[in-house]
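>> received
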Amino acid sequence: MDEEYDVVVLGTGLTECILSGLLSVEGKKVLHMDRNDYYGGDSASLNLTQLYRKFRPDQSPPAELGRDRDYAVDLIPKFIIANGELTRILVHTDVTRYLEFKQIAGSFVYRDGKISKVPSTEMEAVKSPLMGLFEKRRAKKFFEFLQNWKDDDPATHQGIDLDKHTMAQVYEKFGLEPGTQDFIGHAMALYLDDDYKTKPARPTYERIVLYTSSMARYGKSPYIYPLYGLGELPQAFARLSAIYGGTYMLDKPIDEIVTDADGKFVGVRSGNETVKAKQVVGDPSYFGAGKPAEDGKVRVVEEGKVIRAICLLKHPIPGTDDADSAQIIIPQNQVGRRNDIYIAMVSSTHNVCAKDIYVAIVSTIVETDRPEQEIAPGLAILGPIYDKFVSVSSLYTPTSTGETDNIFITRSYDATSHFETVVDDVHNVWKRMMGKDLVLKKREVEVEA
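>> returned
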């Protein structure tokens, strides 16, 4: 370990692996280390033995759940939105050659005590039980307005300025009811709370267009998902890094981030070995997350907590037409909360569990000191639960950009249902490290799903 590297990457979570892959392609000499003996960090997928070891160290998995190797249970429930930024990075880096994708069968929203499919076309909106007759007409006009919008053609603007008018004003113009606003803002624009309504409408417009264009790509839902679980994603980017000369070391304890007298990064110590590098990038757990600051320097702060309950079911979720996979969104207004509750469900179709088992993960941002009660509405939708594993994770964010000390820290995985915020963080860290924007070449490649 006495060579010098351009960048040391700590932790093999998805954010770190995308960065190490892109940095290696850029010609940087990268050393990637992880304290665990598996890839993925917080975004790993675990087999049954690993799952029980993590949540119930004193219990071995019941035999009726089947073979250990049939399982790859995600710790973080997220889907890939078909036309989103992560798909662009996968295609740009050609990482798609290491992965196979399958479509998620349905996107649903909870309203007035029942689950309904999220309408994504005018035809579906007309048939949807989510709206009455007159509301359907108003919604149809709203969707037509979005589809016909052209920035350079004022005739399509209907007097609306997306950069000045708030989303609340746009809803008001079309006379949309609160319940309709709920499913548009939460189940299509995928906002976690209602703060977006008081902000300019353009980001919401862009999110709805992303949703509908992703939906149009494969049909049943806007999401795709990798066979064998999300843990395949970091491993695929790790392969990319290795092809371009990146070095990987798993099961390596990280004992110290070494800095010079001015606090600038010098290297990383593991045991009695120190490896030198110009820059370090890593997840918050390597920079004092959840521990008192050793050198008096606080590098990450907690921004909130997320609760996630991994539930093993022996049946599909009731009300989803026996879908083998689904996303269900419970908008906060429906259950008197500030933040939405998400349910992500996958099954043996995705090679992540044994046949006739379904894995549903219920998650939300913690608002009280009784987090498990907060996800009760989500758990209630699932029907009988065979077993569940609950975790409450802190969300950490770096206190500095890293430009002064060459220590670049990524953010924890948030409560959103997809990877767009992860990619935002990749772009952000890249710009801080490289001093320039990450530019992805445009390649028109279909991701097969």
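>> The two ends are 42 Å apart (CA to CA).
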